[in-house]
Design a protein that fits this description.
This protein has three domains: 126 residues, no CATH class; 97 residues, no CATH class; 195 residues, no CATH class. Helices cover 54% and strands 6% of the residues. The protein has a four-stranded antiparallel β-sheet with strand order 3-6-5-4, with helices on both faces. Strands 1-2 form a two-stranded antiparallel sheet. A hairpin with a 2-residue loop joins strand 7 and strand 8. Helix 12 crosses helix 14 and helix 16 packs across helix 18.
């Protein structure tokens, strides 16, 4: 086949196609490299190795034959990949970096080979300058195309060949050939195993590309985060007494919130659900104190007192709730204060992990809690626990520029925060919530269904 020469405007597509296929195979079957490596091998391995190389040499001959034939384009990549895989599996130190790239490379070739030879012969590949930018991102598949080829973005994931191959359906043939031209299979890939294929006139910073891809994904209704799951069941170890006549129906809303809590597996969303119950209880506390303690008529004075108490700031209400609940019985002879204090000590002072306390301190500092791991005592425990519960909630839901914001995008960077949620907070809050509900604690449950507003 007579191929078009290189011109100032570009190269003939079929030449780009065949040149790149032969280039990667010739890199492997290079005589000098093969002979040098063969000398290191035992007799049996040498026979296997030379047999693979011989098969690849024959395949190159087939490719050259197809290239000279006007009728059809070479598309038989199974034997090539089979032999590359055998080299990668048995002689990885010979194939080296190519072992990371060959499956991606031949996926592109397969897609290009779906065109016929005449179409490729007529196509000219422009002299655009593309590069591969290493990127750390949770997304595995992404393609952005525009009329201007220089604005094309293709995500390459070396560990997700199936996703990458599927994404090639959205890529124009010209761009596919630019991809073949750009892949550098002589360099070690980044630890993420991911690249962005992009014009160097468009963007070269991975942080720009990452945000561009993620915004496109979420705008299309997709997810870009990696969930951090918590799958433990509720912790209920306190002294509880189930009673069918306790009137649990007054907790109907809370029961459904707890159902949603059980349904949630993502740890941050789960935390917000259990906090929602705590928030309900901390504002219910002053109402119960007035309603349950008032056997006479409910006067305007009582309404005024009630209004004053529920108008407290959230952190003040949470601290009052903790002081009250910490005095409640966890087990006979043990208060909730004792239980939470002992739980904190065993959690924070882990003899099997000497770095844990420092990581927890970093997490506490990040979310704005003043006290540190080894400074917690019985006296400051209620205020510390309230501050921790409240600041953790703020770090998840608040979006103030002055506040630290914990997300699924950064939680893995802060193992101390993960420790706090998984090893201490969720289980502690579960213990409090279920004990108060099941035992129909008068601090959060009404003892009377009606208010007496006047003498009948």
């Amino acid at each position: 086949m007579q191929t078009s020469p290189v011109t100032p405007s570009g190269r003939n597509a079929i030449s780009v196609y065949y040149d790149n296929i032969k280039k990667i195979i010739n890199k492997v079957i290079d005589d000098e490299s093969v002979n040098r490596y063969s000398l290191q091998l035992g007799l049996n391995d040498k026979d296997i190795f030379e047999s693979v190389i011989t098969r690849l040499v024959e395949i190159v001959e087939d490719i050259e034959q197809a290239e000279s034939n006007n009728a059809e384009i070479f598309n038989d990549f199974d034997p090539i990949e089979y032999n590359f895989k055998e080299l990668h599996d048995k002689f990885p130190d010979f194939i080296n970096e190519i072992g990371y790239f060959y499956t991606i490379f031949f996926s592109i070739c397969r897609k290009v080979s779906e065109l016929d030879a005449a179409q490729l012969q007529a196509l000219v590949i422009s002299n655009s300058n593309f590069i591969l930018v290493p990127i750390q991102i949770g997304v595995n598949k992404f393609v952005y195309t525009n009329r201007n080829i220089d604005e094309t973005v293709v995500l390459i994931s070396l560990d997700n060949v199936e996703d990458f191959s599927e994404s090639l359906n959205e890529v124009a043939t010209g761009t596919l050939l630019h991809l073949l031209d750009t892949i550098d299979y002589t360099a070690l890939p980044p630890s993420s195993g991911k690249y962005c294929f992009v014009s160097n006139t468009f963007a070269t910073k991975d942080i720009q590309l990452k945000s561009f891809i993620e915004l496109n994904k979420v705008a299309a209704g997709e997810e870009v985060h990696t969930p951090h799951n918590y799958t433990n069941g509720p912790s209920i170890t306190s002294n509880i007494s189930w009673n069918i006549v306790h009137g649990y129906h007054q907790f109907s809303d809370v029961i459904y919130i707890l159902s949603e809590y059980n349904h949630q597996k993502n740890i941050l969303d789960k935390y917000l659900k259990i906090y929602q119950v705590i928030e309900n209880f901390m504002y219910k506390l002053p109402i119960c104190a007035i309603v349950n303690g008032n056997g006479d008529m409910f006067s305007i004075r009582h309404f005024k007192s009630l209004y004053d108490k529920i108008a407290n700031k959230e952190i003040d209400a949470l601290q009052k709730f903790n002081r009250t609940i910490f005095d409640e019985e966890y087990q006979p002879g043990t208060s909730f204060k004792d239980f939470i204090f002992n739980k904190w000590n065993s959690f924070a002072n882990d003899p099997t992990d000497p770095t844990k306390c420092n990581l927890i301190d970093t997490g506490l500092e990040k979310i704005g809690v003043g006290l540190r791991c080894n400074k917690i005592n019985r006296g400051n425990l209620p205020a510390f626990f309230a501050d921790l519960v409240y600041k953790m909630r703020n770090s998840i839901v608040h979006n103030k520029e002055t506040e630290f914001h914990i997300t699924y995008g950064n939680i893995s960077n802060f193992p101390g925060i993960q420790y706090l949620l998984e090893g201490f907070l969720l289980a502690s809050m579960e213990e409090i919530v279920y004990n108060l509900i099941i035992n129909k604690n008068p601090n959060v449950s009404y003892l009377h269904p009606n208010l007496k507003l006047f003498e009948d």
